[in-house]
């Protein structure tokens, strides 16, 4: 626990100023984190980035994460993130031709899904803090909902947890803890909305925002369970070792990669 707290304090001390600063500093930081996330998934599967699939997965992820007008300004102004991502998919699919039919669509599926999962999640994270939004409140709302869910689920689970939520995937998680995480997220969201009315900042009433928060909390918990399922499948304890006591980048961002795309889908930013 001491190691976890120390790592969390240091990570927040480094990351929060970057979030506040935004712009290029945040974009490049998120791009690096996304590439580390791709590396961690490839590592779990026993693959390397120093490969045809690895290079294209990294390239596709960067196409999804980074703003095109700043980093790919030499392209046509009609290009968009998804069309560039599909370009990497097209190149990946040519592997079936040049490998003389030994490279199947199943082989292509892993790098494509990896870059889509990681790239879209981190892209939504950047959109929440994007310069066009001009306000850090969108990003902070999502972070607070995820953090409240994690802390609430842990505390309620320890105190009241009896019924396992998904014992085959994550034996320590309980239904009571999951409900506690949702309740904690709603309480934090209400406090946040009292300070920054939802109608003014999110385009929705406070009642709708509370309902959305329930979905965000559930999505965050599902993101955590999905990552746990991957690790269980690949017989890996943590996605990586970058953060002592916490594991890898995906171990810390798994919930966020589900929550921020959903926030964007619901029109919060």
UniProtKB/TrEMBL annotation:
EC number of this enzyme: 2.7.7.41
Coiled-coil regions listed in the entry: none
Keyword Repeat: no
GO MF annotations in UniProt: phosphatidate cytidylyltransferase activity
BP GO annotations: CDP-diacylglycerol biosynthetic process
Principal location class: membrane
GO cellular component term of the entry, any: plasma membrane
Principal EC category: transferase
Metabolic or biological pathway: Phospholipid metabolism; CDP-diacylglycerol biosynthesis; CDP-diacylglycerol from sn-glycerol 3-phosphate: step 3/3; Lipid metabolism
Designated name of the protein: Phosphatidate cytidylyltransferase
């Amino acid at each position: 626990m001491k190691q976890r707290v120390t790592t969390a304090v240091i990570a927040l001390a480094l990351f929060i100023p970057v979030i506040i600063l935004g712009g290029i500093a945040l974009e490049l930081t998120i791009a690096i984190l996304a590439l580390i996330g791709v590396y961690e998934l490839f590592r779990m599967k026993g693959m390397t980035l120093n490969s045809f699939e690895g290079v294209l997965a990294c390239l596709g992820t960067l196409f999804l994460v980074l703003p095109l007008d700043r980093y790919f300004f030499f392209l046509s102004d009609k290009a968009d993130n998804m069309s560039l991502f599909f370009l990497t998919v097209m190149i990946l699919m040519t592997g079936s031709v040049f490998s003389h039919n030994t490279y199947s669509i199943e082989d292509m599926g892993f790098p494509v899904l990896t870059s889509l999962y990681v790239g879209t999640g981190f892209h939504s994270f950047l959109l929440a803090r994007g310069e066009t939004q001009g306000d850090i409140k969108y990003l902070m709302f999502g972070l607070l909902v995820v953090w409240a869910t994690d802390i609430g689920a842990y505390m309620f689970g320890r105190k009241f947890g009896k019924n396992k939520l998904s014992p085959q995937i994550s034996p320590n998680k309980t239904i009571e803890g999951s409900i506690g995480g949702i309740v904690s997220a709603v309480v934090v969201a209400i406090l946040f909305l009292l300070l920054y009315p939802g109608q003014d900042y999110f385009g929705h009433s406070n009642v709708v925002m509370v309902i959305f928060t329930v979905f965000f909390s559930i999505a965050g918990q599902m993101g955590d369970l999905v990552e746990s399922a991957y690790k269980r499948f690949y017989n890996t304890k943590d996605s990586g070792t970058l953060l002592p006591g916490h594991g890898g980048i995906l171990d810390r961002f798994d919930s966020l990669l589900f929550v921020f795309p959903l926030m964007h889908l619901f029109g919060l930013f």
